[in-house]
UniProtKB/TrEMBL annotation:
<dbReference type="InterPro" id="IPR016161">
    <property type="entry name" value="Ald_DH/histidinol_DH"/>
</dbReference>
<dbReference type="GO" id="GO:0006574">
    <property type="term" value="P:L-valine catabolic process"/>
</dbReference>
<dbReference type="InterPro" id="IPR015590">
    <property type="entry name" value="Aldehyde_DH_dom"/>
</dbReference>
<keyword id="KW-0560">Oxidoreductase</keyword>
<dbReference type="InterPro" id="IPR016160">
    <property type="entry name" value="Ald_DH_CS_CYS"/>
</dbReference>
<dbReference type="GO" id="GO:0006210">
    <property type="term" value="P:thymine catabolic process"/>
</dbReference>
<keyword id="KW-0520">NAD</keyword>
<dbReference type="InterPro" id="IPR016162">
    <property type="entry name" value="Ald_DH_N"/>
</dbReference>
<feature type="domain" description="Aldehyde dehydrogenase">
    <location>
        <begin position="15"/>
        <end position="480"/>
    </location>
</feature>
<dbReference type="GO" id="GO:0004491">
    <property type="term" value="F:methylmalonate-semialdehyde dehydrogenase (acylating, NAD) activity"/>
</dbReference>
<dbReference type="InterPro" id="IPR010061">
    <property type="entry name" value="MeMal-semiAld_DH"/>
</dbReference>
<protein>
    <recommendedName>
        <fullName>methylmalonate-semialdehyde dehydrogenase (CoA acylating)</fullName>
        <ecNumber>1.2.1.27</ecNumber>
    </recommendedName>
</protein>
<dbReference type="Pfam" id="PF00171">
    <property type="entry name" value="Aldedh"/>
</dbReference>
<dbReference type="InterPro" id="IPR016163">
    <property type="entry name" value="Ald_DH_C"/>
</dbReference>
Amino acid sequence: MTTSPILSNYINGQWCSSEATETLNVINPATLEILAKVPLSPATELNHAAEIAQQSFASWRRTPVTERIRYLFKLRELLEQNQQDLAQTITLECGKTFAESLGELQRAIENVEVACGVPTLIQGYNSEDIARGIDEIMIRQPLGVVAIIAPFNFPGMIPFWFFPYAIACGNTCIIKPSEKVPLTMQKVFALIDQLGLPPGVINLVNGAKETVDAILDHPHIKAISFVGSTPVAKYVYSRATANGKRAQCQGGAKNPVIILPDADLEMTTKIIADSAFGCAGQRCLATSIAITVGQAKQSFTDAIATVAETRVVGYGLDETVQMGTVISAQSKTRIEGLIQQGKDEGAKILIDGRNPKISGYEQGYFVRPTILQDINPQGELARTEIFGPVLSLIHLNTIEEAIAFINQSEYGNMACLFTRSGAAARKFRYEAQAGNIGINIGVAAPMAFFPFSGWKDSFFGDLHGQGQHAVEFFTQTKVVVERWLSDWSRQF
Ligand code: NAD
């Protein structure tokens, strides 16, 4: 019998075994094969990483920014050369399709590319002669050690919303991946190991709650970028900020789309199906509720039901598959329980994806696309994040009612509208309370040079990840007022 390897941490430029007494199995959610064991690193290991990163910061911040980004140019090349291998690892541990894994890595690469622009993005501003012989300048300086805490659903992308910017700005960092999908970062760090970076600039510590708590309490760690569920985001934000740290915490979502009667039916249906069922609904920008307005109801309901029923579900490495697994047995049970809850609250299960039999993968954590019709707009299901391939349908009479329904949500990650009317689109863009808005778009994911903007309980903090926002988050401003006279004997 072969035993699964225990994954290592990467601290001070070296792979090191964890002294954790507890490990978790990393499982392929389609085959249930145990891929590895992940150590739940104790606080002492995180503290060691923080000490190392702090020591490394002293010289890294003095390294010229042009030199710092040269490592990113090299990382970009390595990511591209290894994209297929990395994508395979994402699919193995996360269950999504290979094409989806390639797609998330593309956004990771784009973030590295944008972070290569930090020499420009980090620039401050200046004003000469604010008084005679006096100039004022604003410069940006790095914070020190920063930490990134990631969720399970995009193991190859989400750390890249942050760390390329953090290190390009002169910070050192610690990454804690999700304990459910730690293999992708092992592979990424195998590439980071080839960069020749000074030891301690980027560190990897595997673990779960104890490791996170050590991050939240460590005095060397000045800023935290967190992505995950809303209850944990709230907890991380409050504990980190109570300890005087900067924090940006992305939380959960319940994303609605509105379909107006004038929307192009074929395009709208395809886009909404991709949004609701892509990555098995485990995207923070997945459509969860489709609101039909007026005459759109019957035609959209029929069309989306057909697409949901014919979606090819299976093992993500099979090229013909359009949708893979959900992440775990616990997640499958929870999603199927919420489908039942929707029914109990009065919805009709139009397409029921519970307990599918996927040939060759009978034990896998599959839920097929599911459609719940006429859910209770005031019910629990209309508010709860499902994070699975479940689309709930609601019918309302006007766009005003639809926007009012959207705006009562406690979440505000994404909202989309499907229409051919410019006036309706403008009204929606203006009034909808969400940080990411799509007009005839189903996954309004910002490019790497735009901030990833959630609102309400989808985000706690101020500056977001990616692009200029990340540069501002990972730097602090310093204003210098200076007097230089050509004639020091002059009276003034
Ligand atoms: P999660 O909150 O369970 O875990 C996220 C991270 O927090 C992990 O690294 C985990 O180890 C850690 N963690 C979990 N429980 C903790 C606790 N009690 N104390 C301290 N740390 C803890 O989230 P998940 O299930 O991995 O990811 C799915 C969630 O992430 C969904 O809610 C999804 O909407 C959200 N998400 C949001 C965005 C966004 O940009 N808003 C992006 C991706 C995912």
